[in-house]
Amino acid sequence: MPLNQQDQFSLLKDILSNHQNDCCGSVAECEQLERLVKSLMVQTNSDRHIQPVLEEIYRYSQNGIAAPELDQHIESNQQELSQWVTEINQYS
User: Fold this and answer.
1) pLDDT value at position 3?
2) Which Pfam families would you find in this protein's record (predicted)?
């Protein structure tokens, strides 16, 4: 069963919040972020507010997948993670 847009935003916030709170994560979570963001970018193509945030999260997920030390990558993006969660909360 496919997730609707609201469910996708909720899952996106959950993963980002977990990364922020736990300062760790998995490559599978980064891959999930990448898939969610791709889907949301297509669905929210006309919304100028959320598109830049989604693009930043997409880059974060790609860099996380390629990072030799994923936990360090997550720790170095703590401020961005907090900002993204706040912006997604305002949008969704």
Assistant:
1) 82
2) YtzH
CA–CA separation, 12 vs 92, rounded Å?
11
The DSSP letter of residue 57 is H
Whole-model pTM over 0.70: yes
Backbone angles phi, psi at 87, to 5 degrees: -65, -40
Sign of dihedral through CA atoms 52, 17, 26, 40?
Answer: negative
Instruction: Name the packing angle between helices 5-22 and 78-91 (round to 10°).
Output: 150
| C-beta separation of 8 from 40 below 8 A | yes
Backbone angles phi, psi at 60, to 5 degrees: -60, -45
* Cβ within 8 Å of residue 32, ≥6 positions away: 11, 15
Domain count, the chain: 1
